[in-house]
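Notes to self after the Tuesday call (sharing in case useful).
The group wants a holo model before anyone commits to mutagenesis around the pocket. I volunteered. Ligand is (2Z)-2-iminopentanedioic acid. Logging inputs and output together so the record is complete.
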Amino acid sequence: MNTDINEFIAGLEKRTPGETEFHQAVEEVIISVWDFFIRNPRYQKAKILERMVEPERVIMFRVPWVDDSGEVQINRGYRVEFNSALGPYKGGLRFHASVTLSILKFLGFEQTFKNSLTTLPMGGGKGGSDFSPKGKSDGEIMRFCQSFMTELYRHIGPNTDVPAGDIGVGGREIGFLFGQYKRIKNEFTGVLTGKGLGWGGSLIRPEATGFGSVYFAQHMLQRIGKDIEGQNFSVSGFGNVAWGTILKVNELGGKVITISGPDGYILDNDGIKGDKVDYLLELRASNNDIVEPYAHEFGAKFVADKHPWEVPVDAAIPCATENELNLDDAKELVKNGCKLVAEASNMGCTAEAVGYLSENLDYAPGKAVNAGGVAVSGLEMSQNNMRINWTREEVDMRLRNIMKEIHETCVNYGKNGKKVDYVKGANVGGFVKVADAMLAQGIV
Ligand code: 2IT
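Result:
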């Protein structure tokens, strides 16, 4: 039996060579839950951790499509069905040139604990493709989505696996994917979330990841006697998560002064508000994947090839992608007086940055902070199954309650004297439910 954490990690690395992002995500969880695991022989005996780090199923497939010039293109499609102990596999699809099996395994692994934290009945999964929407026409995106779904449809279903969006997959892509699923299966079901409002989508789903992240940050701040109002925030990214985050920070009286893209970051000391927030949607819809045009449009400063973490702020909310904030960035934030980092991106901080931030300010990990997105996906599934639509107020009230409960779970499992170890809180809180369900369901 495995009672040595280093042996456990070495074994994992040996079985999954080169999957560095996956190793990073697993190690963080293993370190958090190890004591708990060792103290509970029934988990050890049933090899719960060993089973948890092995996806239930990995599907990889060819996605051929024809571009606008008539040339045949081949991409690779994936669905990692990680854990179904708590419900149907649930998690987004990512379309980005950087997508690898390692990245989707790390995302699917984290999704399992995140979904557990939401308290809703959802297992964990993730999928996507190395297809890059950058520079593609709407027609090309549609043909790619149709080809992708022509293979994926046989593996998913409203009670089996319910994908949604992630980086590179928004309302437009979900529409194309849903249309093809419906055409092949001749079934109108809630097989995807993030659907349009007129055809089965939920109010607040587009805003949910950002709104939920700010609700979570608000609880973190309130615990240390502060509030959103009057605070300056830095945000990275300029997609759906950044957009929702900025809307909610503004509503609660804070100010967001940065966004970023692969080309660099924008510094707008007047605050990103009003029309400027709507402009983010235009930037994303253009498929160019750059933020510099914002500077020309609104007379703000553009800093090429840099991350926004060098800007002095009270709080930072990373909203872009994994490992977007490293140890040097963490030191810079702390040096400049930042008091809080609420990670809205999945594994946005490197392991070294997490260590440094946790010691020097209040830091919470993506699987807790950004769980509002998948939580409202869960609410979309409920509405689809009941064939009703909840009001904006109803969905928002449920989202607020879920984020409050996730914060309480983190405090319960992560309290350490006056401080809260949000990493431990989120990991142990997410783990217990999944582990107990796996125990109850036998060796499967
Ligand atoms: O990382 C995430 O939680 C998502 N991309 C959302 C997943 C979902 O099923 O809504």
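Two things stood out.
The pocket of (2Z)-2-iminopentanedioic acid is lined by residues 90-92, 111, 114, 164, 166, 193, 346, 373-374, 377 (CB under 6 Å).
Residues 208-360 form a domain with the Rossmann fold fold (CATH 3.40.50.720).
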